[in-house]
Amino acid sequence: MTRHLDQVFAALADPTRREILNMLLEDDMAVTDVAEPFTMSLAAISKHLGVLTTAGLISQDKRGRVKWCRLEPDALRAASVWMQGFGQFEPVNLDAFERFLAAELPGAPGSGTQTE
To answer: Rounded to the nearest 10 degrees, what angle do helices 2-12 and 42-54 cross at?
Structure first.
């Protein structure tokens, strides 16, 4: 499981690969169509597609002479479940925390009393 998560997050770390995934949200695409909006070689795009395929985020299949890419949304499920574990924590309100400290700790910044 950890290795799979590492592959998914490594694949998502690159903006080009995230854009490719965004493009594939619409529909399956031929590799040449995926490469079209980018200013890099087809070989470079193929490497990005290889990383996405290894991570299980996309699948590729050949239809006739054309290689097609398809988004595999279920591959993000494990990463999503892992990230949701962090949702159990409330965001920290630093202003409220500072007020709490000022009220509880005499001499703390913002408490209005200074101890020397």
So the answer is: 150
In a domain, 116, yes or no: no
Q: What is the number of structural domains in the chain?
A: 1
Answer for the pair 78, 1: CB distance below 8 angstroms, yes or no. yes
Residue 18, domain CATH: 1.10.10.10
Alpha carbon 11 to its chain centroid, in Å, reads: 8
Which element (helix H / strand E) includes 5? helix 2-12
- The helix (run of H) or strand (run of E) holding residue 79 is helix 77-84
18 found inside a domain: yes
Per-residue pLDDT tens, the chain, 116 aa: give them: 688 889 999 999 999 999 999 999 999 999 999 999 999 999 999 999 999 999 999 999 999 999 999 999 888 888 888 888 777 666 666 677 677 777 777 665 554 554 44
